[in-house]
Amino acid sequence: MGILDFLKRKPEPTAAVAKERLRIIVAQERSTRGAPDYLPVLRSELLEVIKKYVNVDLEAISINVERDSGHEVLELSVALPEGKAAQNPAT
Amino acid sequence: MSAEIIVVTSGKGGVGKTTTSASLATGLAMSGKKVAVIDFDVGLRNLDLIMGCERRVVYDFVNVIQGEATIKQSLIKDKRHENLYVLAASQTRDKDALTQEGVEKVLDELGKDGFDYIVCDSPAGIEKGAHLAMYFADHAMVVVNPEVSSVRDSDRILGLLASKTRRAEKGDGAVTQHLLLTRYNPSRVEQGEMLSVKDVEEILGISVVGVIPESENVLAASNSGVPVILDENSHAGQAYRDTVARLLGESRPMRFLDAPKKGFFQRVFGG
Predict the structure, then answer these.
(1) What is the per-residue pLDDT across B78-100, written as a single tens digit (0 to 9) for each?
(2) CB-CB under 8 Å, B194 with A22
(3) Which of A1, B85, B103, B213 fits a disulfide with B75 by CB distance 3.0 to 4.6 angstroms?
(4) Which string of b and e fits B81-96 if b means at least 16 CB within 10 Å?
């Protein structure tokens, strides 16, 4: 690559990257909006417990708090990996 | 009679809240409305400079709230529009000087004085000043730049508008949300270097009420203390006029969303 090519090189178009990153973080922040402060900690502790039995990562767990008139529902869903569960060390 | 209260807010600083507050208030006044614009940024007063009335501030918002001056004494009459008034922020007190009851009292009194619109220029952040600026709002103008941190912060603000306002708490109907995209650079969008109007609308799930192009006239306007909406020749000024008209119910097409076509000389010599 000659020096002229270097001078002519254009910056990578980064708007698409920005959009994708924002799409993900905004969706995540909306899902926990107005939720109790302990949620992130709850989430990671739950993950530790689940990990003892099934091999999942943080992305696999989603927690939602929904408000109905007067009461709140904490909804937890764990996407299990395909195939079998991790070896169970506890037996 | 109570006034319509519009908060200009964003979360992130430096995106153009005060510029927008000044132009919005001026634009509403130009359409014959009686307008007060209030600086909620206690300790960092700046709206007075942008409105060009910094040397005429005698009493401020905090003085009124603490009963040290009346509203009439504190409102600064705009030099250009007789139905436009500025209420400056205190430069010396800290932000705890604002109280919810105090702010409510001032807003009520302005409503009784026959104001049609009260524009609340919010400080950056989501602390007390920003909270009080949005709390009593009927409408919100959320100012956003096509840039990741600003977009994320404005989503946070949209969430707060839907939960931490008087309307939300009383179940009084939602605060009307308007998204204003500022510092927009169509050439950079075309190069794929900047989020487009459509990108921002998609991410936030709300359509824009206006798009203000990045413009050197904005700095020139603030340099001289004249709201940029009064600069009829600038694209930014015209875009603000369109935005105010849309807020008042007129339908106007979006302008200045495309990069200006480069002429032969520009293509050859750059620029």
Answers:
(1) 999 999 999 999 998 777 889 99
(2) no
(3) B85
(4) bebbbbbbbbbebebe
Of the candidates B207, B191, B139, the one whose C-alpha atom is nearest the C-alpha of residue B167 is B139
Q: What's the pLDDT tens digit per position in B140-153?
A: 999 999 999 999 99
Question: CA–CA separation, B59 vs A85, rounded Å?
Answer: 70
Of B152, B156, B193, the CB nearest to A22: B152
Residues forming a β-bridge with B142: B9, B179
Tell me which chain B residue has its CA closest to the CA of residue A10.
Answer: B191
Region for residue B256 given its phi and psi (left: phi exceeds 0; alpha: psi -120 to 50; beta: otherwise): left
Evaluate whether B113 touches B150 at the Cβ level (below 8 Å): no
Asked if A16's CB is within 8 angstroms of B159's CB, the reply is no
Q: What H or E segment, with its residue span, contains residue B96?
A: none
The answer to whether the Cβ–Cβ distance between B193 and A14 falls below 8 Å is: yes
Tally C-beta pairs within 8 A across A and B: 45
Contact A16 B192 (CB under 8 A): yes
pTM: 0.85
Residue B114: closest CA among B172, B36, B181: B36
Identify the burial level of B148 via C-beta atoms within 10 angstroms of its C-beta, where 0-12 means exposed, 13-18 middle and 19 or more buried.
middle
**Which strands, in side-by-side order, build the sheet including B176-184?**
B76-77, B84-87, B35-39, B117-121, B4-9, B139-144, B176-184, B208-213
